[in-house]
Amino acid sequence: MSSPARPPASASTPPRRRGPRSDARANDALILSTAARVLAEDPNATMQRIADEAGLVRMTVYRRFRNRQALRLAIFETAAAEAQQVIADASESDLDPVTALRALIIEMAAIIQRYPLLAVTSEWQPRPADSHRPSPPPASRRMHQAVFALVKRGQQEGLLRRDLPPELLPQAITGTLHVVTRFARTLRTDPAAIGPQVADLLLDGFTTRAS
Length: 211
What we know:
Layout: H1 9-12, H2 22-41, H3 47-54, H4 58-64, H5 68-92, H6 97-114, H7 138-156, H8 168-187, H9 191-206
């Protein structure tokens, strides 16, 4: 006598989930965007206030981020990872370095506006070697390394000025966006115009000048 057929695995075993559930990802995005806004307004805002502003219970926030510093780090990492993806997309599309840098500056301006905390802090910017200063998050370091590589390639191809140190443009991009975005919010400048205007300002100064 043959043994009874086993029920399909799907009938008795729930499918294995891969990665965070969609509602968990949505909560993370909501927490980070809310924290970026609230902490920009008040660096000492409590986790309770952030949870209230996000419409979540405090334990939901604490389950993902143990304190304000963890939230800040997550915001910097998320923003830098988004910028890194823009760089990767530009590299894969075979854009010339100047076009790639212009697209990057415009997208970075949009990223800062999504995470206002970046406009009121310098922690995400690369720092000179100094044991007394905290290092920027790894994703931020990778972002600046990629920009540096684009600048070097642009100089080698004769598209960017060779009389300026290649380290200057990555610093100028983050510094200019930091200042312009911060004060543009006060002056009520059109947010969509910030990225293109900063790109024009920086790249017109770095492109090769006609003789």
